[in-house]
Amino acid sequence: MGVRERLQNNPKRLEWLYKTTHNMILGMKPMISRLGMERFERFVVGVERWSKEKIFDCRMCGQCVLHSTGMTCPMSCPKNLRNGACGGVRENGHCEVIPEMKCVWVEAFERSQMMGVYGDEILHVQPPVNRQLEGKSAWVTMLTGEDKDVPAAWVGINNIPVIDSANK
Amino acid sequence: MTEQMRSGSNLERVLRAGHFAVTAEIDPPDSANPDDILTAVKHLAGHCDAINATDGSGAHCHMSSVAISTLLHQQGFDPILQVSCRDRNRIAIQGDVLGAAALGARNVLCLTGDDVTAGDHPQAKRVFDFDCMHLLRTLRIMRDKSMFLSGRKIINPPNIFLGAASNPFAMPFDWRPLRLAKKIEAGADFIQTQYCYDIPRLKEFMKRVVDMGLHEKAYILIGVGPIRSAKGAEFMRNNVPGVRIPDAVVERMRQVPKGKGNAKREGKKICIELIQQIKEIEGVSGVHIMAFRMDDLIPSIVEESGLGPRPRIPVEKPAETLPESINE
Hints:
The complex is a heterodimer of chains A (168) and B (328). Chain A is an all-alpha fold. Chain A has one domain (3-163). Chain A contains 6 helices and no strands. Chain A has helices at residues 3-8, 11-27, 29-35, 37-56, 104-114, 138-144. In chain A, α3 (29-35) crosses α4 and α4 packs across α6 (138-144). The radius of gyration of chain B is 19 Å and the shape is globular. Chain B has helices at 10-16, 35-41, 65-74, 90-102, 132-145, 176-186, 199-211, 230-239, 247-254, 262-279, 298-304, and strands at residues 21-25, 50-53, 79-84, 107-111, 161-166, 190-195, 219-224, 286-290. Chain B has a single domain, classed as TIM Barrel. Chain B contains 11 helices and 8 strands. Chains A and B meet through α5 of A and α5 and α6 of B.
């Protein structure tokens, strides 16, 4: 098993890594603001692309929801489902489109079950992708809040899932 | 279930009156002749409550679902407009739904859609700007908030009864009821499932659904359909994404003695037996009959399953647009 698989199959550790990176970047916000977001992005976007591609097969959608999808990149689903799994999953748990690949959302669900902090986030309805952020650094859009921007009419919806997590 | 009538479509009225509903699917014509719809549906009158107008089913080109839905409406049927996210982005979809509603569609089934590789144009660009969850929520916003997703006002919002699909027979089984819950959360009022040939699996699924109370939040219709032959069953389970047919069913079809019409009769018999078992399962509100290239069988399947004649529910005044939890 390669390093990547070993990491991916350890969602608890990835979750910790996510949380740490998240808090670290947030903590650096005043400094980054002084540096200028654009300058920071130029410096950081390559690092983000390289590291997240290696670990998650990240597609740089610019609005990372990894912690809500079992630390599995939903954009690597051929249908780009932010709310999978679709009904086409094969009997062996593989993808309808790429038969030799395990379904991204089967993995997402399995991994979410192993997560301690954000595991239940998979129950939330994820908003549509903002295609304007594609290729941007999600670390930057997190700081600017652009990653949380949803279409105007989408706001005000009850984001609490109908499922009580105890029922899971 | 919300008290408020969503669209007052025939399907919704039948379900709200507490009847076991029957919906059917017709093969979309590869034709520009409206009469081809007429021929396909004329024998269905009085045998089902609503008819699905498929949207490029199996990623194959056919007459568009908006056109089929309109023609069905003109013939006095209650169409269920299917909308898939595969071929259109959010701008096209919202416009099409407004247009279809203006032309008589009162039910919309929101689907992600089979991948382009399942069809006859695997070279096509896949769109998937939305997934089915976004589609459901967006149409609910259009209906309940009189707005496009952008927030721009809609003068006369579409009165639509919103549907979603579910596949209890696809992996991961434990996830399926949870995903159904997400769809209801996103806006689904009714559910039509993938073909069911596996009653024990369905019972397990429905048990979870009932435990979670989802059957009280949306009407659940189980997909069924006759099998043409053992070979047909093999083809379906190998080539149609998401269809599971247990070996026992295929084997039963294999045992059918050779002879004209024997296999088709046995396929129909299996379908009727399935419907009779499905009717008894708690939380199920109806069946959705998909008889691919055998829609001539639908009337007798309905009658012999004890589901005919279909109820006639008088039309009440359609609902005013409803400010509901979505506006909170």
